[in-house]
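User: I've been trying to design a sequence by hand for this structure and keep getting stuck. Would you show me what you'd pick, starting by listing the structure so we're on the same page?

Assistant: Good idea, let's start from the same input. This is the structure you sent:
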């Protein structure tokens, strides 16, 4: 995720951005607005049939999801 907290890593040089590109399915860091849209949908009535699962909106360096959703 590209956030104010991760921005210094991206600004330090191209190596971190390249690592992110290799480590994510879309080949780029996620944006907060993208995660916000997913969270808003999950909290809406349109997701009433969603019973649980993992949301890989952010991952730590060890690859485990940082967010686990249960309804």
């Amino acid at each position: 995720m590209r956030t104010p907290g991760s921005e210094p890593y991206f600004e330090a040089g191209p190596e971190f951005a390249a690592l992110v590109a290799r480590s994510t399915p879309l080949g780029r860091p996620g944006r907060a607005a993208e995660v916000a849209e997913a969270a808003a949908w999950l909290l809406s009535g349109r997701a009433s049939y969603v019973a649980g699962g993992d949301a890989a909106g952010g991952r730590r360096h060890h690859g485990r999801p940082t967010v686990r959703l249960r309804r």
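That's my pick for every position. To get oriented when you compare it with your attempt: The chain has a mean pLDDT of 80. Strands lie at 52-59, 65-70.
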